[in-house]
Design brief:
The complex is a heterodimer of chains A (520) and B (159).
Chain A (H helix, E strand, L loop, with lengths): L2 E3 L1 H31 L4 H32 L3 H27 L1 H63 L3 E6 L4 E4 L1 H7 L3 H4 L4 H4 L3 H14 L1 E10 L5 E12 L5 E10 L1 H46 L6 H26 L8 E3 L1 H18 L2 E6 L7 E3 L1 H18 L6 E10 L4 E8 L29 H11 L3 E5 L2 E2 L5 E2 L2 E8 L2 H7 L1
Parallel strand pairs in A: 8-10
Antiparallel strand pairs in A: 2-3, 2-6, 4-5, 5-6, 7-9, 10-11, 11-15, 12-15, 13-14
Chain B lengths: L1 H19 L13 H27 L5 H29 L5 E2 L8 E3 L4 H9 L3 H30 L1
Antiparallel strand pairs in B: 1-2
Helix pairs in contact in B: 2-3, 3-4, 3-5
Classes of the chains: A alpha+beta (520), B mainly alpha (159).
Chain lengths: 520, 159
Amino acid sequence: MNGLPMLPTILVDIIGSAANILFSFLALWYAFRLTRLKPDNFLWGYLFYVTLAITAFAISRAVGHIAKELLFITGKGDLWRVIAPYSGGVNTLCMISVSAVMIFYHKGVQAYEAIEQEAAKLKQSKIHLTRAARELKELNLNLEDKVEERTAELSKSEKKFRHLFTASKDMVFFTDSNQAILDMNASGSEMLGYSRHETSFLTLRDIFRHEGDVAVYAKMLEIDGYIRDLEAEFKKKDGSTIYVLISATALYDEQGQITGSEGIAKDLTRLKTMMEQLVSSEKMATVGQMAAGIAHEINTPLGIILGYAQLMRDDFDKDSETYQNLEVIERQTQASRKIVADLLKYSRQSGSARESVNLNEIINDAVAITEHSLNLSHVKVVLMLAGELPPIVGDPEKLRQVMVNLLNNAHHAMEGQSSGELVLRTRHEATAAKVIAEVQDNGHGIPESIKARIFDPFFTTKPVGKGTGLGLSVSYGIIREHGGTIEIESPVPGPGNTQLPGTLFRLILPVTGETAAIRE
Amino acid sequence: MPNRKLSLVLLLLPLIMALLFPGEAQALQVHGEPEGVYVHQMAHLHYIFALGYFFWDLRRTSFTGRGWRYLQMFCILMICWNAIAFVGHLAGLYLDPEALLQTDCYLQTQLLSPLTLNKYLYFITKLDHLIYVPALFFLFLGLRSFYRSVAKTAGEEGR
């Protein structure tokens, strides 16, 4: 009877069942320890229950199998047949339980992942909250220091800007929406001739010379929000005018409405004067060249007319009418030649000497020449000459002529006045290497409208026949020939921003190395 | 409110009737002998499905590490074991009781000739522990690996 022995299956069944118990218990042990280690972790908790169900099934099955084999070995197979349905039932139950638990893994993991995500978010939030709390705490702790630090910074900044405001040599001002001046720096007040207190009652309409400029200022701010380089004229307290270049910015409130403006005005008066002088200088140069040409052309026929007139005169009796007429021709021709000579002097066409000249001596000579006529007009001459005045290089005759011209002009300006005063000053400016002579009168002054034209040839305010209009032109040409300049101030600035009536001519002549050489 | 009470009574009526008149209840079913085997076989199929689903889920979720790979091995081996057990139970059902001969003692039991496919299947499937034990071994390895990994991480965090 050949068959297949079942002994190997029995042995594998018994040993395998024992091994099943062992491994399932070991697995359960580690699953349990995992839950102890991480009691809040869903995944390990879930695996513990899966392992528990697998272990229950493994034990149920292994115990059943071992019991069966042992009962059969010991000849108690009948007993097993009684137990078998229960063992099988429990096995089936355990198997279904394991299956059921496993099926829930999917949803469990989904829930776990969702929880993990939320937990991560919460963790992140917690980190942020902790950080924020720490920062808040630090901020609280350092608040006092920070406030102090910020206050110091603000104070420093305020001081810096305040200094900029006060120390600026330009006018800085703030206005409200009605163009009323809220604040103005000291330079601004000084520029306008008001006190600081007075400026707080001013509006832009008070300081702009032309009403239209205020409207332009407001309009530009309204349209662009700023003004760049607006040229305008300001009216000083004394009524005089200053020329300014304005830059301003509009100030807005939270609703975007203009609440005022802040502006800077730069005084261009001096610059403007200089520009005018420059233009005048150019004009004079052109006129000079033209005059030189004309003078040269006229000089020759005049010489011939004079020569012929003198020759013809000798042919007639002194008492004759023709002789008298020829004398008139000669006299008038001489006068014309003088005018031509003056024109040539103005245009530097005539020759001149170069020698060491003391300006004080020139002034004394000129005063001596004109003193008599000045005294007749009751003009008081005040000499304020510098004690030590370095000599300059020039033509003493021409310089004397300039000085006499200026004195005559001053005399004419003071004619009809009961208390005319003529002040003559000289001084030396060593740093600029200049010698300055000033001729100041208290006459009627020069109107602003003709100030730019007084050096023009043939320009005169005197009645016809009383002056040729060449005096100042010639003086201008002579001084320029000497490398100097002539300045005019009318009215004359007095002490403490006051204005004195009259005119001041200032001759500025250079003291050069050549001067020193000639002196030696 | 009265409507809700009425609904409750109507719902409970079949239960009350079944308790009061059990003989009249036609739904009672008698569980005959093969039902236990069928249930057990169905449980094996259910177990295979659950393990397959579990395995697929393990693969789907992006958990990495040796422990998860051991757990996947456990699933594969257990699916194999369930299949073997399912076949084994069928082979047992179709095996003639006379095919097993016990001479002196149970340990000398033999599967008599002629050896058919069913008899071979019966014999081989009786050795199912050769699959089942490795499956549990992998389960043990997996959990031990998880534990060590977590313990190591916890230790590092603790430091």
